[in-house]
Amino acid sequence: MTINNNNRVVFQVTTSETGIFIKDFLRSKDISERALKKLRNNGKILCNGQTVTWRKVVSTGDEIVLVYPTPVKNRYLQPESIPLKIIYEDADIVIVNKQPGICVHPTKAHPTATLANGLMDHWLKNNPQASFHAVNRIDRNTSGLVLIAKNSFSAQKLFLQKQQQMLSRSYLALVQGKVVSRTARVDLPIVKCDGQTTKRQVAANGQRAVTCFEVLDYFRDCTLLRLNPETGRTHQIRVHLSHVGHPLVGDELYGGSTKKIGRHCLHANQLSFFHPRTGQAMIFELPLPADMARASG
């Protein structure tokens, strides 16, 4: 299987796959029902260069080409030249070390100067057909690794990995006080606070949220943790740590002190997944950022 021009995916039918309908062949490649409908209505499905229907039976050696529709330009997502720390990029994905203070994508409060705006500008110069699909999102003041798919096919494959818990991520955090338990699993539901646009709290009627952590080091008045969230609720790590009495250093919203640093000390340091095209295992890791290292002293 290959991908070219961002919106074309090519498969080769093997001997073991011969004799089945093309729809079943594509479903075996993890192409979702939604993606198939999009291809049927707005794109193309070709077999050896000819447009075909779902009833086409594939044979050994057939070349199946999916031509995804050209992404519609989002008028609310304008290219902006902003500094980017790109860790890795190919035709399908880009990994960025997002800096604190930058949103992943535009919001009502922060409609411009986001990671998405910066990447749209970056792609104008070298990959104009790329489209922005954030696979993992982190808060504006959280730093670290963000994975972006650059086409519909890659986005669908990566979101499926996320759903099947094949995409894993971990964080480094500085929390206030000494965390006594060397390891712990926090399984507490989270709900949006009444009258608040972003703040969350632990509540029995909330959505299930699970965060695992281990202690990495102790400092004079704070603890360095590695965290692995099993779910992905808004502010999950921040809420859970605050609830157990150890808010993030710098997290004013959830009770942390801002004396040492002006942002919450949370860093997305590790990300692992399988490449949507090749299936190759991809692992990316970042060290503790300098501002968090200073805040630990």
TrEMBL record:
The UniProt keyword set, sorted, is: Isomerase
Instruction: Please give one Gene Ontology molecular function term for this protein.
Output: catalytic activity, acting on RNA
- Organism superkingdom: Bacteria
Could you tell me what reaction this enzyme catalyses?
A: a uridine in RNA = a pseudouridine in RNA
Domain Pseudouridine synthase RsuA/RluA-like positions: 92-243
Q: What class of enzyme is it?
A: isomerase
One GO biological process term: enzyme-directed rRNA pseudouridine synthesis
Instruction: Give the E.C. number(s).
Output: 5.4.99.-
- Active-site residues? 139
Q: Which InterPro entries does UniProt cross-reference here?
A: PsdUridine_synth_cat_dom_sf (IPR020103), PsdUridine_synth_RluA-like_CS (IPR006224), PsdUridine_synth_RluC/D (IPR006225), PsdUridine_synth_RsuA/RluA (IPR006145), RluA_PseudoU_synthase (IPR050188)
Quote the NCBIfam families the UniProt record gives.
rluA_subfam
* Family recorded in the similarity comment: Belongs to the pseudouridine synthase RluA family.
The record describes the protein's role as: Responsible for synthesis of pseudouridine from uracil.
The protein here is known as Pseudouridine synthase
